[in-house]
Amino acid sequence: MRSPCFAVLSAFVAAGSPALAEQNCNYSHPVQSGETLSLIAFQAYGDRTLYPLIHEANMAVIGPRPELLRVGAVLAIPCLDDEFTPVSADISSLQVPEVAPPPVEEVVVAEPEPEAPLTLEPLMTTEALAGILGDPRLQIVDLRREGDGVEFGYIPGSLALSFDQWRGPGDNPGAPPSDAALSQILSEAGLDPERPTVIVAAKDHVMHFARGAFVYWILKSAGFTELALLEGGGARWASEGRTIDYGSAVPQPQEVSVTLATTWRATPLEVAAIATGQMEGALLDGRPAGFFRPEQEGGVVVPSTIHGAQNLEGMQTHRAAMIEESGLRELEVLDRLKNVDVAWEEIPVVNFCSDGTLSAVNWFYASEVAGIANVKLYPESIKGWAASGNPVAVGTLSERLYDMAN
Asked: Which residues are in the LysM domain (predicted)?
């Protein structure tokens, strides 16, 4: 039952009280910083003392203490004559009960809590992605190329950016885009380096994973700090029955300017210096052994790699990492990496392959999963190396690594 004071208020409304003749009511009001209930009542009714009416109408939002307002809370502002039954305009016979003056409001404005940062593990499971899918800060990049198929749909919110956009010309496909070209790609897609970004390859296959690792390397070098590569790609996501869209998201272009850092990139000059012994470092060829040390009929070995390189097959590294037991992934990767004669923590370790793609797998697991510093990618790899007129050499297989792979 309403208290007698509200009946009196209604009577004043019916009588045309000057203070309440012009009501600004029956609307939603978001609380602003510095506002009090009495100020909101004055804005609505022209009378600060009517704040208890707003308090009672919004008890579920405000709570029992009218002085504690949360910034951003949305209050319903009722009309006086909407909520209560009007009484006669002749109020001369009304007995107005004694009403205690309203309490002095203690203004304590509760500021909104800061949003928790969205952090990503470099290698993300589909379950982990599903848990943050609705977060508006998240960016998802779908790398499928023409011919990869669209039958498994798109993860909701995915931007379609074909892997081909991140590659160089035909004679040197491993060369990443120039700073200007990469800035244009990011600007047209609306990709913000300061927002968490998940890279989604098309299929659950090591070569598709390698494409994702290559783009991960580009974005990390461009200044993206929260990155993840989705394990199993879009195909695994769909095969698990998770939510899909049958079209990619519409880009929201914005101006983006980036410069590729050299922290994780080896230049041709650095590679040549390591190959000739002028600079300390290690070269790792990530191709299968048959490409690292190809043999023609009759057992003739064909030169095909860079002088001094060791063979660390990216496919085998990926296989070692794809174990089911939680918590063992880093150990398996480290065991695999230790099977090459490399002082990982002491010297630059340069990864290459035919065109930079497969070697990105070794770089990703060593740098991002195992957390080893000084690991670099030579993206131009053998195709760029040979196209520049540099010599190739006969590869020498490590017996220990060869036994492990077979």
From this structure: 27-77
